[in-house]
Each structure stands twice: as C-alpha cells, then as structure tokens.
Amino acid sequence: MTSSVQILTDPAIAKYREQYGALEAQLPGGEHDWVTSLRDQAMSVAIRTGLPTRRVESWKYTDLRPIHRAEFSAAVASEVTGAMLDLYKLDDAFVAVFVDGSFVPALSRLEGLPVGVEFSSLADALLSGEKGLLEGLGDVVALETPGFAALNTALMQDGGVCRIADNVSVEKPVQFIFVSTENSSAECHLRNLVVTGVNSKATVMQSFVSLGMSSGFSDVVTEAVLGQGANLRHVTHQDQSATAWHIGLIAARVGRDAHFDSFVLSSGARLARNEIRLRLDGEGADCSLNGIAMVRDRQHCDNTTDVDHAKSHCHSSQVYKNVLDDRAHTVFQGRVHVAPDAQKTDAHQMNRNLLLSRNAQADCKPELIIHADDVKCSHGATVGDLDQDALFYLQSRGIDLETARNMMVHAFAAELLEALPEDSIRPYLENAMSSWLENIASVEEAA
Amino acid sequence: MLSIKNLHATVHGKEILRGVDLEIGAGEVHAIMGPNGSGKSTLSYVLSGREGYDVTDGEIIYNGKNLLELDVHERAGEGIFLAFQYPVEIPGVSSMSFLRTSLNSVRRYRGEDEISAVDFLKLVRATAKSLEMDDKLLQRPVNVGFSGGEKKRNEVLQMSLLEPSLAVLDETDSGLDIDALKAVADGVNALRAPDRSALVITHYQRLLSYIVPDFVHVLAQGKIAATGDKELALELEKNGYAMLGLEDTEAA
Hints:
A: 447 residues; 2 domains; B: 252 residues; 7 helices
C-alpha cells in the first residue's frame, strides 16, 4: 500500500518510468529476453524503492533534489577529435573512450590487448546478447541499494566490460575515459564490469572529464569481481565541469586472498558522489580504499564506503582526505560491517579535512558494526585549517603567501599520492592536483 | 643598516613593546638580553612581519626602506632572516624542495637567476657538511623527526644558504648541548662580514662567549633599559637582572 503511494508522489521516479517505457525497445539488448527481463526487474525495484531522500541513512548528507530539478537531454552527436583527449589519456595504457555516454572505437587505443584480456563496450555486449561476455553483470550490486543502482540497471546504455583470465597479469593500465562534450546536458547511465580471474592482476582507471562546460548527469555503476588471489587496482579521476552532476557507485566482491585497491581523486562536478560498496568474501581478502576530494565554490562531494567483512582474516584500510575552499561541502561516510564469523578482522578508517575557508563544511560519519569479538577496528577524523606557524615559517624564508599555501595544501593531499606505485597514473594525478592548486592562486589574485 | 625608533607593538591587543630604540650598523653584532616576558621574541616577530604583531607607533627603517610596509616574504628578500626559537615541523613538505623554493624565491626577489638543480644540490651538501649536519636529515620533510639540536642546525643551514644581511637569532641557544651550541655559533660566525649584521636574542650569556657581540642591550618591560658591551652580559650573568632593578620571572 505504502509503495503505491510512493510511486505517485515520487516525480523523479515517474520521470524515469516514463522514459523507460518510451526507450525500452531502443536500449541495447532489447531483442534479448534475458536483457529485457533484467531491465524490467530493475525498473520494478526502482519504482518500489524510489530514489533516496536525506532520511535514508546512507544519503543523510547528500540531497538529490537538485539533480531531480535539473533538465537533461539525450546526447547529441558532437565532434570530438583525438587531440582534444591527449591530456586525459594515460601514457602507455589501453584506452577506451566514451563520448557523452557512447563508446567511440576511433578515439580509443585498444590494439594489442594481451592474450587473456577481453574488452568490449557494454552496448556491444548487450547487442550480441552473449551471456558469457556479461557473466557477473548484476551479480555484485544489489538492486535495492539506496541510490541509482536499480535505475542504472534498467537504463544502462554503455560502459566498459573488461575480463581478465586466470593467471594473467596485465602490465599496462586499462583506462576508460568518459567525456562530456561542450554544452552537453546529456544524462548518461553508464555501467562497467570488471572481472578478474584467479591470481590475475590488473589496473583499471576511469576518468570523467568535460571538454568545456557541460551540465549533464552521469550515473555510473561499476561492478568488479575479484577471483581468488586476484589483484585489482582501480583509480577514479572525476574532473567534470563544475556544472555537471556525477553519481558513481563501485560494487566489488573480493575473493579469497584477493586484493582490491581503490583510489579516487574527485575535484569536479557541482555535486559528486563516489560510493564504494565491497564485500571481502573469502579469507585473507584485503582492500585499501583511499581518496582525495578537492572542492571549491559551492561544490559538493560525497565519498561513501561500505565494507562488508564477511569472512575471517580480512583486512581493510581507508584514508580519505578532503580539501575545501569557499562554500564547498564534503561528506565522508565510512561503514564497516564485521560478520559474526569474521574473526581476526583488521579494519581501519581515517578521514582528514583541510578547510581553506570558514564557510566550507565537512561532514564525517564513521559507522562500525561489529559482530565478531576478536577484531581490530579503528576510525578517526580530523578537521583543521592550514597551520599558521608553518605558513609564517615558509614566508619568513622568502616564499610568498600563495606559494606557501599551495605547498601546504599539496603536502596535505600528496601524502596519499606518494604511496601510489610509480607508473603513469601517479604523474597524471599529480598534474590534476597541481592544476587545481594553481586555480586557488589565480582566484585570489583576481579577488 | 637597521634603525628602530620609538617602536610600540601589541600582541592580541596587549602592548608588549613600549618605545624601543635601536640602531644597528653594518657588520655589527648586537645582543638583546632580558628577563622573560620583556618582549625579546616579540621584537623578532615584529622585525619579520608576523601576523598578529601590530605596530601601533614608531618606525623601522632597513637599508633606507620602511620595513613595516613589506610583507613577510619581502622582508626575507631584503635580507632579514629570523632563526626561530622553535623551528616548525612541516609534514609533507620535503626539505630539499622547501630549501630550493626558498632560495630561488629570495634570488628572484633580488633580481638574481634561479639556481640550477645540480648547483643547488652541491651547495646544500657542502653547507650541511660545514655545519656537521647529516644530509640524510634533508631527505625528510621539513624539521620532521629532527632533534632540538638538528632543528637549530637546520636554521643555520637555511641562514647560510640565504646569506642574509641581518640575521635575527631568537634564543637559538635554548635547548642546545655544548657541541650543538658551538656548531651553531661557528655557522653564524662564518657568515660575519663587513656588510652583514646580527641581532642575537638570548636569555643567557652562554651563547655570547661564542658569538661575541659588539653591543649588548637589555630589554625590559618593552624598552631598552641598558646598553653596554660584552662585559654587560658577563655582569648580568653574575649578578642577575636584579642589578638593573629588574625581576627575572624565570626561576633560575
């Protein structure tokens, strides 16, 4: 009874329901029953559960109404050349490029994928209807997860599908670049799937960038399955223009003795959420989740994690840092759940916030739910501004205030970058961070 | 070189300096002694331009320029160097990049070319060696994990690199053992030159046996209460500040 009331009063869902009715046949894979039934089932869950309000605990600090109020369009074909993307392509990596939500092979660089590594765009995989290509799709993310998980499954249009065979180690990173074109107000429902076999090793990076100002909405769900002993490093760089909207969810299932390493650098979008939900699903599984949000003006960035220690002897460590200027708002919510049998769990979580303005706001909410009795779990949070003594010290050595501030903000954030492996991703992220810092100085000069 | 006239300064609205007059000529070393709370450190911060230290009256002219109109980093560019009583630890900022940014900032201010990476490295290594400072320390973030003595040596290292025309040493001797004290004093003495001056702020006479001052001033209640030569420091050491009718608040 209550659910039918909700349908009528949730205009956001009503809009999607209408869209789904109109689009269903055109969505990729519409001619294959299993795809249609997956979408239908997801849509009915979306209708039943609705989109979360701030009364839902995991959305307590992020208000989706601005996204509901915004108007989005379908993607319009737009001219993008390879040169426009050079800045965003990793050196020495396999690159798949998606423009306003659609895979563009001509802009991608996927030649020479090693044996045992398969890549396909989600749209192609859905069109082919081959279940094998998409094995695992929908298995990791729960449709009932508050947010866009169900809607994304119903409306998914494209994304990257990457499968790594057992015992295969991929040296070069695989990068998915999602480009929003200038003036685009496209709504994109992107879905990625990364499956790593037993004892395999891979690095996957997702970059979300805008070519000029865009005001589109990216709803991204990434599912990752890590086989026994697998090692998957995942890096997200979200640097869409400050008028865009971004809701990302990574759902991972980490097998026995497998290691999942995540790093998120989020500096773009008017409102961004980077959510990671993972299950340590075999003994000895291990995850390390780190992130930096750098926001200014009225940007909002929400990093939410949910780590489920389902088995014993698993380890999780999380360090999230936020740098906030102007009236920006960051959120860190870290939930750790330790199952009754998950003895010898080792779970640590830390959130550090650096406020560069009195008007910025950082919300932090750790949540530890522990059902086992032989565990080590910790959490901590700090909020502070720049150390005035240190600033004076640097200035007294001839360094001007802006440079001194930048050195200190960089020091705060770079600590996490320094722990990254020495490959092409690290200088890429360092550049991204430096360009954010340069903008602090330019804004102040202008003022 | 430095001319301080009728300097009044407040900290958090409280008047600490109440009419300081001080003239330092080129090549001279002046010591400022005085009981705790007399305003010694305040004077050093006012000279370097620290925020929160407000000059309410008087003037400071440095090499013909009104120092009070300059920002902190500009004063450093003009050649004023403050060796801190408590050097600040800055986690995440590498010592080498700090030193290089500092040196190049000052060189740019003085209209000189930036130093190349290779020349910089050579210069730092040679300077550290002359101060008997382990250059492994410089692989750490600024002052992080340094002992008290190592921090003070690091101050002298920075001073040597920046070649200031006026070095202000704020209780550089506090917390140093005799070896570190000698090393620091040697470093300061090595910089002595006809065009370079120093202002040595100290509570005790000890340091002045190694850095011999031309003039000794006693600062009390925000004013220069007495001026003499190095003998004044020795007398104060023997008789205490009470000989000037002053109370030393520190339990000796």
